[in-house]
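During the reporting period, we have paired protein sequences with backbone structure tokens. One record among many follows, to show the layout:
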Amino acid sequence: MSKKQIFTLEYPVRCSPSILFEFLSTASGLQEWFADKVDERDNIFSFSWNGSVEKADVVESEEESFIRFHWQHAPAEEYFEFRIEKSEVSNQTILVVKDFADKKDIKDQSQLWSYQVKDLLHRIGS
């Protein structure tokens, strides 16, 4: 099995970091755009898509800054992360998504993230 590679995507967002962080770090916020249904208990998130459930642990987070998840079925060194940054030039809020995929799948995974983030931006009115 080939080792997955990390990739990073950036999206400009027109909303405050506090509002954006709610959509990235709470079950109700993530359910708005990321999965069909999301539940959270003891820092373990259950994401449901079309009846299939995947669980992810919150590895680390900092209010209004970032949250990192680890899929329970994935190797320990793999994660996906949402980070909120400010552009020094424009002072615009930037959503940075980090994830892992096989090299041949990075393009498809990037398109999937872009589709989901587009839904997020629509939900927050950005």
